[in-house]
Design goal:
The complex is a heterodimer of chains A (324) and B (383).
Chain A (H helix, E strand, L loop, with lengths): L1 E4 H15 L3 E5 L15 H5 L4 E3 L4 H13 L3 E5 L10 H8 L2 H4 L9 E6 L14 H5 L5 E3 L4 H13 L4 E6 L6 E4 L12 E4 L4 E5 L3 H14 L4 E5 L2 E3 L3 H11 L2 E8 L4 H13 L8 E5 L10 H4 L3 H12 L2
Chain B lengths: L51 H26 L13 H8 L7 E3 L5 H7 L3 H9 L8 H4 L10 H16 L5 E6 L6 H12 L4 E7 L2 E2 L2 E2 L11 H5 L3 E5 L3 H19 L2 E6 L18 H8 L3 H11 L5 H23 L19 H23 L1
Parallel strand pairs in B: 1-2, 2-3, 3-7, 6-7
Antiparallel strand pairs in B: 4-5
Helix pairs in contact in B: 1-2, 1-3, 1-11, 1-12, 2-3, 2-9, 6-7
Chain lengths: 324, 383
């Protein structure tokens, strides 16, 4: 066991992957000598050289497009997109090429490309640096989408994503980069696409992922003081999504609130609400509620605390669900 | 073969003669080794020396490719294909460049590289699956080092560049050739591919078939400078070749691939040619271009000029031409029969090959759809 931040856990995971598989290459803007704007690749350029840790031209479509080419040549590229809002120039390559080439070739080629994206708000940034684009990718067949919320998961899930023969969108909760936690680097990791019960409870299920897991745990602690027992499910994987785990939890608690930073309009919460309603119709005591972003551009930093789902907005939804 | 070392410098169009080929009024400067009249000429920087057998082989390749292409157009008219993108007129650009590649080189095509596919040993029948609507490609790209057709314009130039970066990393001495068109030259991905290839000195040849038309838009709508000159701004050589001259295309592409293989980085070849047919079978060129233009290009036909040369110099006789003709009819018949016999895919195949490692939602939806299909069958049987 070692205590480390999520950022350090990701750095260690990349180091481990570079050490164990010579085909792993890192690509991105400023990931070399600088170590990335969030320092996730700190020290890797020095230790593995520019052939393994590649500073790229400032062109996201070019980064993903050439990563595809490297994958076709037998490499396992791990791409860093500097910020969530800058993935869109690469969106075409991700959706029309990366996601579809395996099917286009009737399975004869594989695209083991990982696209790391620091995502979400809460860091007081300028526009395009605080977005949550996960639904765009979860909507696309051929991609897998995951997001860790703890150093332990950051360490293992990134290595598992790199080991995957499918393209993986790896969403890193950037405002949690410096949160610390225990990491067991020796044990057997949980499967990449399974949810995790972060907190057991009996009265209501909070389902969240990435940066919102911490908020939900805090909400559960506050609710506990009022005698309410909330269960927190850390989804971890958004595509595929572990509906079985959510279903099992809801069959126990009979109430579900889904929490994410992304706008609720056609977001992950909408899909979860629809499927859980189908699966658990006779178990539900209340409609599935969603807490998330509004149908508005991500706001300027001085009002982002109001925009982001916080403890109170989560508890408000909990109250509404329990009042049903 | 010598490679132009100064080509990276910006060049302005010159007038007068280049090498042995006389430049016609109003036509661009380009490398030519065989005139439209079938006259063999020399060029100061690019040369080629082929055996009679190789020359006859190029002729055969072009005739068979044109025959296959015509058969596909007919099959579309007969309702056997949903769409066809004809390469008519571009046979020399494709056969010349395709025959310049080595087996260990890798090809990234658009959706019109039927002649290049032929050179790489891809069965023409395999190209028709996507146009019939039974798959989206489906051949194994690694069998012939010929990637799947790419429909989104210009995307494959980045894949080619990344692949070439991988070749460099492996220390291999092969090269990549990326096909694209005059329309694609406007795409951001192509500009990014040029940038990445230049920065990493990747062994990739960008092969632009400038067929003058991007559906209805002429090249002037894409670029204010000749496309080959764009390479200079990225720091690598660009050259324009007569795309209807199979010998010049072969010579220039060989040189460009050798340039890439020998560690000198990327090169841009602009094959100046003409799309004799419609963009695809869904297109109607009479709405946007004049017949006169097409007629002018008919005089530059790539097959006719090689045949004239082969006849004039006694390199091939009537028996050879008759043999190729017979072979082309056999090919047409084989393709026709194979396409007509091509079965529709099993609906359950929709759920296959989406992921290499599987996906729970795909499994769930596959099971639900199978159950739905089964229930439909059962209810029919019940009546």
């Amino acid at each position: 066991m070692a205590t480390m931040t999520i950022a350090k856990a990701l750095n260690e995971a990349l180091r481990k992957s570079l050490e164990t598989d010579p085909k792993v290459v890192l690509m991105g803007e400023d990931i070399g000598k600088l170590g990335g704007v969030f320092r996730i690749t700190d020290g890797l350029h020095k230790d593995f050289g520019e052939q393994r840790v590649i500073d790229t031209p400032l062109a996201e479509s070019g980064i993903v497009g050439t990563a595809i080419g490297l994958a076709l040549r037998g490499y396992r590229p791990v791409v860093e997109i500097q910020f969530d809002g800058f993935v869109f120039p690469a969106y075409d390559q991700i959706v029309t090429q990366l996601a579809k080439m395996h099917a286009r070739a009737l399975g004869k080629i594989k695209l083991p490309v990982v696209i790391r994206i620091p995502y979400g708000g809460g860091i007081g940034a300028v526009e395009h640096h605080s977005e949550s684009p996960e639904a765009y990718f979860a909507h696309t067949a051929g991609l897998k989408v995951v997001s860790p919320s703890t150093p332990q998961d950051a360490y293992w899930m990134l290595q598992q994503a790199i080991d995957s023969d499918d393209p993986v969108i790896f969403l890193e909760p950037k405002r949690r980069y410096w949160d610390k936690g225990e990491v067991d680097t020796e044990g057997i990791p949980a499967p990449l696409h399974k949810a995790r019960t972060a907190l057991e409870g009996t009265d209501l299920t909070l389902a969240a992922y990435g940066p919102m897991v911490k908020v939900c745990l805090e909400a559960a602690a506050a609710a506990a003081e009022e005698g309410r027992s909330l269960e927190v499910v850390d989804l971890r994987s958004l595509s595929p999504l572990d509906f079985d785990a959510v279903q099992a939890s809801v069959e126990k608690t009979r109430r579900l609130v889904v929490v994410h930073e992304a706008p609720v309009q056609l977001g992950m919460g909408a899909e979860i609400a629809a499927r859980i309603t189908e699966r658990c119709f006779y178990h539900l005591e209340a409609p599935v509620l969603r807490v998330g972003g509004f149908h508005a551009p991500y706001p300027p930093a001085r009002v982002e605390e109001e925009y982001l789902p916080g403890l109170d907005r989560v508890l408000d939804a909990v109250d509404r669900s329990l009042a049903f | 073969m010598s490679v132009k070392s100064t080509a990276a410098k910006p060049r302005t169009p010159r007038t007068g003669t280049r090498g042995g080929a006389k430049r016609r009024e109003g036509e661009p400067e380009l490398v030519q080794l065989l005139t439209p009249e079938g006259e063999r000429v020399q060029h100061s920087e690019y040369s080629i020396d082929l055996s009679p057998e190789e020359l006859r082989g190029l002729y055969r390749d072009m005739v068979l490719t044109r025959r296959f292409d015509a058969e596909a157009t007919s099959l579309q008219r007969q309702g056997e294909l949903g769409l066809w993108a004809s390469l008519l007129g571009q046979e020399a650009a494709q056969i010349g460049s395709g025959r310049a590649t080595r087996p260990d080189d890798y090809v990234f095509p658009t959706y019109r590289e039927h002649g290049v596919a032929w050179c790489r040993g891809v069965d023409p029948v395999n190209l028709l699956g996507m146009f019939r609507g039974v798959n989206h490609g489906g051949w194994d790209p690694n069998e012939n080092n010929f990637q799947l057709y790419t429909i989104v314009i210009g995307s494959q130039t980045l894949h080619a560049t990344g692949y070439a970066m991988g070749i460099s990393k492996d220390g291999a001495d092969s090269a990549v050739i990326a096909y694209f068109g005059d329309g694609a030259s406007s795409q951001g991905d192509v500009a990014e591919a040029f940038t990445f290839a230049a920065v990493y000195n990747a062994p990739v040849v960008f092969f632009c078939q400038n067929n003058q038309w991007a559906i209805s838009e002429p090249t002037e709508k894409q670029s204010r400078v000749p496309i080959y000159q764009r390479a200079a701004g990225f720091g690598f050589p660009g050259v324009r070749v007569d795309g209807n001259d199979v010998l010049a295309v072969l010579a220039v592409t060989r040189a460009a691939l050798e340039h890439a293989r020998s560690g000198q980085g990327p090169m841009l070849v602009e094959a100046f040619t003409y799309r004799m047919g419609a963009h695809t079978t869904s297109d109607d060129p009479t709405r946007y271009r004049l017949d006169e233009e097409r007629e002018q290009w008919e005089h530059k036909d790539p097959i006719l000029r090689l045949r004239t040369y082969l006849e004039k110099d006694g390199i091939a006789d009537e028996a050879f031409f008759a043999g190729v003709e017979a072979e082309s009819e056999t090919l047409g018949k084989r393709v026709r029969e194979a396409v007509r016999a091509m079965p529709d895919p099993d609906p359950m195949s929709i759920f296959e090959n989406i992921y290499a490692d599987g996906h729970a939602l795909v499994d769930e939806e596959r099971a639900q759809f199978a159950e739905y299909q089964a229930s439909f069958t059962d209810s029919t049987e019940g009546h």
